[in-house]
Amino acid sequence: MNRILACLARNQLLISLTVLALALLFPLVFPSQYSIRMATLCGMYIVLALSLNLITGYTGQVSLGHAAFFGIGAYTAAILATRFGLNFLFTFIAAAIVAGLAAFLLGLPTLKLKGHYLAMVTLGFCEIVRLVEMNWMGLTRGPLGILNIPPPSLWGFTIDAPIEYYYFIVALVVLTIKLVQNIVDSRVGKGLIAISEDEIAAEAMGINILRYKVMVFVISAALAGFAGAFYAQYMSYIDPTSFGTDQSISIFIMIIFGGLASIPGTIIGVIVLTLLPEVLRGLMDFRLIIYGLILIAMMLVKPEGLLGNINFTRIKKAADGKKAGELK
């Protein structure tokens, strides 16, 4: 097993380029609209799960209301596109800003607390946002939802074909992975990991815990807002039922299954748990029960998830050091 991990660590760039090439070829090999649609939804959930893993996996803060920021981004984009006719460049940026601002206002008082207060607060926040979306008829049209959301367009080019949406979400996934990886590899990322392991020790080292937590919480929510903007303009219709607590729990289970603090694990977790309900379509009403059973089994067999606690950068350095020692 160690040799396999070392091999994967040494060839991360090659593996990443191969996966990207396969992703680009996917709609050409599987051209059916159903396949492309499922792959597009997988891409959207990858963005959502990576954003949640940034706060939960790398910082150790449990958030159970990620769908609230997803919904805020979706409604922001939908309202700006339908009522003001703004193009997707403005709707996406606005969705990220509004979701990030909501996270800042929520996180500033909440993240001062320790323990699982954030989990409880975000769970309640998600329900509050859903109720606002359900009852503010003048803004969100309540249970009627927002209809006829225009597709993304810029400078006369409109994204309206399934394959175009697919390549659009692939670009967003690549940008999200790059952003998360850069954060993790930076000084900020090291600070986040230190906070997740021991807050007292991190504070003693001079790390401003509240600033780091709030910053990553805002970034996480902004990325969820991006995903929400894509969802709104991809589906062309949204209503509050898509942004409830069950959606938050589904995203949370994806990162637990794939592995906390693991980008490859998150991607695997999303793909497996997004496609599983389609494979078991007859059991769609029992989706959360199935997810729960999978989560229980994972906690018993491999609590850290499929690729949790596997640091490929560290493994590569160790393997290179061992190889250099053997050459000597």
UniProtKB/TrEMBL annotation:
Transmembrane intervals: 12-30, 36-55, 62-82, 88-108, 115-132, 165-184, 214-234, 249-276, 288-307
Subcellular location, principal: membrane
Membrane topology: Multi-pass membrane protein
Protein name per its UniProtKB record: Branched-chain amino acid transport system permease protein
Protein keywords: Cell membrane, Membrane, Transmembrane, Transmembrane helix
Subcellular location(s) per record: Cell membrane
Signal peptide range in chain numbering: none
Transmembrane helix in keyword set: yes
UniProt cross-references to InterPro entries, sorted A to Z: ABC_transp_permease, LivM-like
